[in-house]
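Let's practice the habit of predicting before peeking. Look at the sequence and jot down your guess about where helices and strands might fall. Then scroll down.
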Amino acid sequence: MNKRKSLFVNTLYQGISNFTNLFLFILLILAGRYLGTEGYGKFSFAFAYIEIFAPIIEPGLSPIIVREISRDKTSTQKYLYNVLSYKIGVSFLYCLLPLSLLLFLGTSKETLSAVSILAFARILKTFKGVFVSAEEAYEYFGFNALSAFIERFLILAIGASILVQGGSILNLCWVFVAVRMFDLIINVVFVRFYICKLGIVFEFQFLKDLLKEALPIGIFSIILVLYTYIDTVMISFFRGDVETGLYNAAFRIGHHSWRSRSCFYAPTISII
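Done guessing? Here is the structure:
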């Protein structure tokens, strides 16, 4: 009976966490309204573009961490330390590749800045994901739900305030960095006091085996990312920011509206 109750409660918490994507969906609508067609096109491109490269730092390790730590709690530090060291190592590569390509293509300064800021925010999100995996393995779903609610509510509240006051694309992008940094610190402190001490260890053979095991999940992630975001990137490259904004306002918002209601997959903004 206790196990059934625990399963129900944890599922409820996970559902609440997914439902908070509605806050991000609302922000999408406001961004389209206040940034204008061209501005919203740049904003949509920046989100989609950095997500194309996300498998570099998100190669499918999170499900493996949850599974292995839940089986053997004594392995918590080993998995966390090695995965953190991996993500620190590849973060530079994650920023370098997309920015180098945009510089080569002569992208506008504003778009390049937006991509740079959101790439940093995406890195903060992926580090949070490591700690979330540990929390899920220890069944702290209540804290996860609370953390997701606070993070996305703050993004909506601060982002909406900036948009209404006539803030720029870059102002909105910095909101994600600030809130993500705050959210990451909260999760670091929680894991430090309730799960284990934190540190960094690089074990080449262990990481190699771990990445090999995560390969099928990583391949699926690449396919899913391309399916979800490649259209926005292609339209931006071939047709420009205005048509990218029109496309995302007409298609993306309606598309993610359905996904938000189904709680199946997060809206575009949730990538960072």
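How did you do? The longest helix spans residues 204-239.
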